[in-house]
Amino acid sequence: MSVDSATVRRIAHLSRIAIEDSEVERLRGELNAILAFVETLSEVDVDGVEPLTSALPMQMKKRVDVVTDGGIADEILANAPIREDHYFVVPKVVE
Q1: pTM of the complete model
Q2: Residue 2 — φ and ψ, nearest 5°?
Q3: 3-state DSSP assignment of residue 89
Q4: What single-letter DSSP state applies at residue 18?
């Protein structure tokens, strides 16, 4: 795949980057070099290689997904300057 000058200008426009006309050819060369490198990756034989999410084999720690109040509502409300029942009292901000 090769990038032309119009594509460079379009990429710059979409990424909201201001480029001068004198920069287009240099950027075209850089983008083509990047794409050429990416194309060489397709030559790598990856048959039998499993995809990795981590360098170390590990299992995610999971917890039961249950809804609770945290069990410490009284401790949390102890820090409130004003409270009513089990709620914080705050100033009214919307009329």
Answers
A1: 0.50
A2: -130, 145
A3: coil
A4: -
* Separation CA 13–CA 2 (nearest Å): 18
pLDDT digits (tens, 9 = 90+) for 41-90: 989 998 998 888 888 888 888 888 888 878 888 888 888 899 888 889 99
Q: Distances in Å between the alpha carbon of 32 and those of 20, 27, 52?
A: 19, 8, 29
What is the SS3 string spanning 58-74?
CCCCCCCCCCCCCCCHH
- Could you tell me the CA-to-CA distances from 69 to 73, 74, 76, 82 in Å, in that order? 7, 11, 11, 20
Domain boundaries, the chain: 5-43
Site of tokens 């004003």: 82
48-57 per-residue burial string, b: 16 or more CB within 10 A, e: under 16? eeeeeeeeee
Residue with tokens 């794409």: 35
